[in-house]
Amino acid sequence: MEVSKEPESNTTSMRKALLIINCIVLAIGNCAGPLMMRLYFIHGGKRVWFSSWLETGAWPIILLPISLAYFHRSRTQPGSQNKLFLMKPHLFLAAAVIGILTGLDDYLYAYGVARLPVSTSAIIIASQLAFTAGFAFVLVKQKFTSYSINAVFLLTIGAGVLAMRTSGDRPANESNREYVLGFLMTLGASALYGFILPLVELTYKKAKQEISYALVMEIQMVMCLFATGVCTIGMLVNDDFKVIPREAREYKLGETKYYVIVICSAIIWQCFFLGAIGVIFCASSLLSGILIAVLLPVTEILAVIFYNESFRAEKGVALALSLWGFLSYFYGEIKESKRNQPALQTEVASVSDRHTSV
User: Fold this and answer.
1) N or C: lower Cβ tally within 10 Å for the chain?
2) What family does the entry list (predicted)?
3) In angstroms, what CA-CA distances link 219 with 163, 182, 200, 211, 304?
């Protein structure tokens, strides 16, 4: 009897395709999200809790792919007990806790973006990679190769190069206290999200059920639901719901564009969160952190194009270092994959021999 390798090959190919799709989705959210949020603030938006709410408020969109996955299971597995939601109570509780932390992180990040230019806040967020690497080592025993260490080092140095000349980025109408507070809030957001990414990976590993991509979407929905709940409480306390209609009327770009920006921002941020936890599902929290960091110079360039922020030599150096680090990581992954392939073939061959002897 011969053991077929085709199902395993198909699964690997599907997982790689899913990883590429999630990387693209993450890139869209990571680059466009900060730009949309800053656009809200620079043209008259002032509600930090509302801006935080927009980061996860579009969570009902996730119901659409969850429903499609349910109908697909119903057609392909008609004899099985099929449910719309696969999540068990303990996993729901874990996702809820992570969602509350995400809500707090949303506020810290939105406060920083309200006070800092896109380039400056992006630089600070790059420090998230160091936090992610540290927490991944502690929480999920992430194994580091020389290539992944090199990638973390290069990306961190790239962020440091960008930070060399940020003193001139402070808005003219902003006090030194507000600028420093915005800096600290953004750094706090970076540290907290650097903790959240490995925590999501730990949740996958400790789940007492099979983790499918449909279940990943459910986790994303529950996380965003509870994060939105945290931000909704903040909006109620801050009377944001009463102020939003007036803010829309007084918005510099007009009331219609105000609501267009708000809706687009909410949808784009869903791309970020779904892409981030999707990459964790397909690979690791470290790769998710590396992708977020490597996209930093892209956000910088987009800020230069759309907001006329200056593009100095250090931004070009940071872009080169980020690409170098990114390529270093993937080169290491390719080498590791090739090293593991002979062992996998030997294992399959031994299984085949056992079945043949039987």
Assistant:
1) C
2) Belongs to the purine permeases (TC 2.A.7.14) family.
3) 35, 30, 9, 10, 35
Q: Give the whole-angstrom CA distance, residue 250 versus residue 254.
A: 7
Question: For the residues 307-317, what does the mean pLDDT come to?
Answer: 72
Instruction: Express each pLDDT in 239-261 by its tens digit.
Output: 999 999 999 999 999 999 999 99
DSSP assignment of 231-280 equals HHHHHHHTTHHHHHHHHHHH-TT-HHHHHHHHHHHHHHHHHHHHHHHHHH
Distances from the Cα of 167 to the Cα of 37, 172, 174, 302, angstroms: 22, 12, 13, 20
Burial 168-182 (b: 16+ CB within 10 A, else e): ebbeeeeeeeebeeb
Q: What is the per-residue pLDDT for 262?
A: 95
pTM of the prediction? 0.81
Q: Evaluate whether 111 touches 185 at the Cβ level (below 8 Å).
A: yes
d(CA 53, CA 226): 11
How many Å apart are CA 157 and CA 92, to the nearest integer? 38
